[in-house]
Design brief:
The chain is α/β, with parallel strands linked by helices. It has one domain: NAD(P)-binding Rossmann-like Domain (Rossmann fold, 3-Layer(aba) Sandwich). It contains 9 helices and 7 strands. Strands 3-2-1-4-5-6-7 form a 7-stranded parallel beta sheet, with helices on both faces. The longest helix has 22 residues. This is Glucose 1-dehydrogenase.
Length: about 250
């Protein structure tokens, strides 16, 4: 599988979970990958080691995407290492859940700073380097379709991601750069384990509503992202692509 040979990709928040799976999937298809992390250096280095052990190309680059200087430094590191940029996967994200009465200003700002501002800052830094055929993939969430209780702020951030995708698809389309959202539903990751979502009534309810009858796995999402990144999806832009087993 070499459909991304010669391409260079940045994956934000790629030290674990969906981001790590995406980084590995892009590398397996021939891309050189910049594995971004905010705090888990060991996790990012483990992803790089896994890629290079399979004769792929990858480097780990630390950076808080919600800070403009660090977002730019991340893109600069990609250009310095590989000389070009073709694919950006905006995967960095944080989430906290709770009822309306528990919403706080710091919680709101933290989620919007990483999930929305971070996406914009990295894309802003990356866009000048992307060429015709470039692909930007924003990781959304199935919560925007099912709007579960106690997710008001997180769902709002992902609704913003969907809207930004549409705007940037129109804005960057004249340069033949594609912009899409890939939206997972509940996926088994380190984060969903630590948040207590799995082996719970919440998990059981999601699985019961999912036509394919199971949780998502990171590889399920990564393979969809790899398709959208490739020239096989050359006529796809401005779309929200669900990777959720049919959950609506």
């Amino acid at each position: 599988m070499s459909k991304l040979n010669g391409k260079v990709a940045i994956v934000t928040g790629a030290s674990k979970g969906i981001g790590a799976a995406v980084a590995k999937a892009l590398a397996a298809r021939g891309a050189a990958v910049v594995v971004n992390y905010a705090s888990s250096k060991a996790g990012a280095e483990a992803v790089v080691k896994s890629i290079t052990a399979s004769n792929g190309k990858a480097i780990a680059v630390q950076g808080d995407v919600s800070k403009a200087a660090e977002a730019k430094a991340l893109v600069d590191a990609a250009i310095a290492a590989y000389g070009r940029l073709d694919i950006l996967v905006n995967n960095s994200g944080v989430y906290e859940f709770g009822p309306l009465e528990s919403v706080t200003e710091p919680q709101f700002r933290k989620m919007f700073d990483v999930n929305v501002l971070g996406l914009l800052l990295v894309t802003q830094a990356a866009a000048p380097h992307l060429r015709e055929g470039g692909s930007i993939i924003n990781i959304g969430s199935g919560v925007t379709a099912i709007t579960p209780p106690q997710t008001a702020v997180y769902t709002a951030t992902k609704g913003a991601v969907d809207a930004i995708t549409g705007v940037l698809a129109n804005e960057l389309g004249p340069r033949k750069i594609r912009v899409n959202t890939v939206s997972p539903s509940l996926t088994e990751t380190e984060g969903t384990h630590s948040a207590g979502m799995l082996a719970s009534e919440f998990e059981a309810g999601i699985v019961a509503q999912t036509p394919l009858g199971r949780l998502g796995q990171p590889q399920d999402v990564a393979d969809v992202v790899a398709f959208v990144a490739s020239d096989d999806a050359r006529w796809v832009t401005g779309d929200k692509i669900s990777a959720g087993g049919g959950l609506r």
